[in-house]
Write a structure and sequence with these properties.
22% strand; single chain; 4-stranded mixed sheet; alpha/beta; Ribosomal Protein S5, domain 2; 354 residues; elongated; Rossmann fold
């Protein structure tokens, strides 16, 4: 028997719809996953087997072949666990070949059938909606993040057992309401109005914030450079919904989105240490991931002890400061990430006194 359900993968910063095809055939009991999976996806065989068994269902005692299409895109992480489990249950007849052909399933399975957090839920749900999907079954902890996307119903799933009961008509999982912009607006830990003194510097920062300029502050330790830099996001204009969506997407893909804040409405403030590498600042890795310049998108990047940064890392800032984006090219792929930010640098005076 053959079953087909839908999942998603992350390619750079964007989601890619993945067809999960499950085939049951005669032969010695075995499970095989094909479609360019990484180690985490290969291990899904054992997680799915245990999760199905511990959820009160039966893992078929047959040869199981799972194909993740398109096969030329590398599949990473445990995000496909839930889709594979649903595909196996449909193929084995434990769930009727339901009319949920326009549903997408995202989430990692624990051995007891629980559905765990997955990075990048927001861009994956967004691409699912673009491909005509009408429902998304996501981990309950990620439902708020997924509900940021309009035009698709979000169903929070706590466990595979709960999803089984939902399809058997024993319970009903209610869709989550859409996530809205907070009515109280952004709240910053440091407010510009709380800074006393340094009127000339404050005026310079106000002009820079109004015009989108970059700033270099020079002064002795303890003069208040860091405090002023941390307070600067509070005088930037409030983020529009589209801007908040861009920033949230970056933090979702990088795995830094707080669970209690499904939509980031505060202007980002990033302050990497001066030992940060080139890849740490602009992004990189075998599979390119956002660096500090992208995580500061629509906000402030603060470089304290500016002369201590590696010259190569500082040179790499030229493109994002000029273009508002950074292109990271690796052997596996090339990714263009947004990096429209305000750079604030700080340094101590030269020991010579100049």
């Amino acid at each position: 028997m053959l079953a087909k359900v839908h999942s998603c993968a992350i390619l750079g910063l964007d989601g890619v719809l993945v067809d999960v095809e499950v085939d049951l055939s005669a032969g010695l009991p075995a499970a095989t996953i094909v479609g360019l999976p990484d180690t985490a996806v290969q291990e899904s065989r054992e997680r799915t087997r245990a999760a199905i068994r511990n959820s009160g269902a039966v893992f078929p005692n047959r040869r199981v072949t799972v194909n993740l299409a398109p096969a030329d895109i590398r599949k990473e992480g445990p995000v496909h666990d839930l889709a594979i489990a649903v595909g196996v249950l449909v193929a084995s007849g434990q769930i009727e070949p339901f009319a949920d052909a326009t549903a997408v399933y995202l989430g990692e399975l624990s051995l007891d059938g629980g559905v765990r957090h997955t990075d990048g839920v927001l861009p994956m749900v967004a691409v699912a909606r673009e491909h005509g999907m009408t429902r998304a079954y996501v981990p309950a902890v990620d439902a708020g993040e997924a509900a940021v996307v309009r035009g698709i119903e979000i169903y929070p799933v706590d466990s595979l057992q709960q999803l089984l009961a939902h399809y058997m008509g024993m319970i009903r999982i209610e869709p989550r309401p859409a996530t809205e912009m907070p009515s109280d607006g952004a709240v910053y830990p440091v407010d510009f109005g709380d800074v006393r003194g340094q009127e000339h510097v404050k005026r310079a920062l106000e002009v820079a914030a109004a015009g989108g300029h970059n700033v270099l502050m020079t002064g002795p330790p303890g003069a208040g450079k860091t405090l002023l830099a941390r307070a600067t996001p509070s005088i930037l204009p409030p983020m529009a919904f589209e801007e908040a969506l861009e920033v949230t997407k970056l933090y979702s893909v990088s795995g830094q989105l707080p669970a209690e804040r499904p939509l980031i409405v505060e202007r980002p403030f990033r302050a990497p240490h001066h030992t940060a590498s080139n890849a740490g600042l602009v992004g990189g890795g075998t599979i390119p991931r956002p660096g500090e310049v992208s995580l500061a998108h629509r906000g402030v990047l603060f470089l304290d002890e500016f002369p201590e940064f590696q010259s190569q890392a500082l040179e790499a800032l030229r493109q994002p400061l000029e273009d508002g984006s950074i292109t990271v090219t690796r052997a596996a792929q090339s990714v263009t990430m947004p990096a429209r930010l305000m750079l604030i640098a700080a340094m101590n005076p030269c020991p010579c006194g100049l």
